[in-house]
Design brief:
323 residues, alpha/beta, Rossmann fold, Dihydrodipicolinate Reductase, domain 2, 6-stranded parallel beta sheet, 6-stranded mixed beta sheet, 9 helices
Length: 323
C-alpha cells in the first residue's frame, strides 16, 4: 500500500507521521507532498528518509490513500485529482466538510457515516473535541448548546507559533506591546478567529454547522464564541447544554465515563491545556455541573488540537476506510 500525505511539512502532517508507525498502516509506503517552497527537503520517519515532493498535477498515480492537511483552496484543487487517480481520501480542510454526500466523521461517534465512501472529511479541530464531549449526552435530549472555545495558536499554523516565540521574547525584554487582532503577535486573548461572516466569525460557523451535521442537532440552536488564546497546543471549550428532560449529575458523569475517548476528571479537578499535552489522544472533561433542576448541564473540555483534533482522528478514519 502507498500513502500520500499532502501537507507533510505542516504541524498536522508532522503529527500524522509520528502516529503512522503505531497504526495498522505502519508498513505502507510513503509519498510526502508539500508546496514548491518545501519540495526537496528531507524528512526522517520511522521507515527511513523521505524527500518531500511538490504537490502538483498528476502526483497521485500510484497512491491508495491520500491524507490532505492543506488549505481549502489546495484541497479543492487536488482532492478530485486523487479521487480520479483511484485513491481514497481523508481531507482535513474545510473544502468538503459540508458538501452533500461527503461524510463528516468524528471517529468513535459517527463511524457508520463512512460506509463505502472514498472521500471522508475530517472536522475542524475544535469540533472534534466538542462533539466527543457532548455526544454521550445526546440521549438526554440536547435542545440548545452555548459554548465558548479557547483555541491555541498551533490551530493557526506554524507561522503563528513562530510569531508567538518572537513576541514572547520581546515581552520578556520589556518592549512595549501594540494592539493587534493576532493573539500571537499581541500576546492577548482575541475573540475573533478567521473572517467575519455576518454576525459570527468563520471559526464559530464551523463548530455550529459541523456539529449539526455530525450529531443531527439544529444549527440554529448552537451558539459559540471562538477565542484565540496565546498558548501553543490544546483547545479548550466551555459548554452549556439545555436538555429536554432533567438529569442528575451522577447520570451525566456515568454517561461521560462510558465513552472510552473521554477522560473524566474527579469532582474538584480542573482540566487545563496541560492535560491535552499529557493525553493527546483523549478529550479531558471536568467542571461538570447540573443546574436549573437538572435541565442544564455545564462542563469544560480540553483536547490536543493537532493530535485527536486532527491527525489521530484522520488516521482512525483511514483505518476504517481500508478495513
Amino acid at each position: 500500500m502507498r500513502i500520500a500525505i499532502a501537507g507533510a511539512t505542516g504541524l498536522t502532517g508532522e503529527v500524522l507521521l509520528s502516529l503512522l508507525p503505531h497504526s495498522r498502516l505502519s508498513d505502507a509506503g510513503l509519498l510526502l507532498l508539500a508546496s514548491s517552497a518545501s519540495a526537496g527537503t528531507t524528512i526522517e520517519t520511522a521507515s527511513g528518509s523521505h524527500e518531500v515532493q511538490e504537490l502538483r498535477d498528476g502526483c497521485f498515480g500510484d497512491v491508495d490513500l491520500a491524507f490532505f492537511a492543506v488549505g481549502d483552496a489546495l484541497s479543492a484543487e487536488f482532492v478530485p485529482q486523487a479521487l480520479d487517480a483511484g485513491a481514497k481520501v481523508v481531507d482535513k480542510s474545510n473544502a468538503f466538510r459540508l458538501a452533500e454526500g461527503v461524510p463528516l466523521v468524528v471517529a468513535g461517534v459517527n463511524d457508520h457515516a463512512i460506509g463505502a465512501e472514498r472521500l471522508v472529511a475530517n472536522p475542524n479541530c475544535t469540533t472534534i473535541g466538542f462533539v466527543h464531549a457532548i455526544a454521550p449526552l445526546m440521549d438526554f435530549g440536547i435542545e440548545e448548546v452555548v459554548a465558548a472555545s479557547y483555541q491555541s495558536l498551533s490551530g493557526a499554523g506554524r507561522e503563528a507559533v513562530r510569531r508567538f516565540w518572537v513576541e514572547a521574547g520581546k515581552a520578556l525584554k520589556g518592549e512595549p506591546e501594540t494592539y493587534s487582532e493576532d493573539a500571537a503577535a499581541a500576546l492577548q486573548v482575541v475573540p475573533a478567529i478567521d473572517q467575519l461572516m455576518g454576525d459570527e466569525h468563520k471559526e464559530e460557523a464551523k463548530l455550529r454547522l459541523e456539529t449539526a451535521k455530525i450529531l443531527g442537532l439544529s444549527a440554529d440552536r448552537i451558539y459559540n464564541t471562538a477565542v484565540r488564546v496565546p498558548i501553543l497546543v490544546g483547545h479548550s471549550i466551555a459548554i452549556h447544554l439545555r436538555l429536554s428532560r432533567p438529569v442528575s449529575e451522577s447520570e451525566v458523569r456515568e454517561a461521560l465515563t462510558n465513552n472510552p475517548t473521554l477522560l473524566l476528571l474527579a469532582t474538584g479537578e480542573t482540566p487545563t491545556s496541560l492535560h491535552a499535552i499529557q493525553y493527546p489522544n483523549r478529550v479531558i472533561v471536568g467542571r461538570v455541573r447540573v443546574r436549573d433542576e437538572g435541565r442544564c448541564v455545564e462542563l469544560f473540555a480540553v483536547s490536543d488540537n493537532l493530535n485527536i483534533g486532527a491527525a489521530f482522528n484522520g488516521l482512525l478514519i483511514a483505518e476504517q476506510m481500508l478495513s
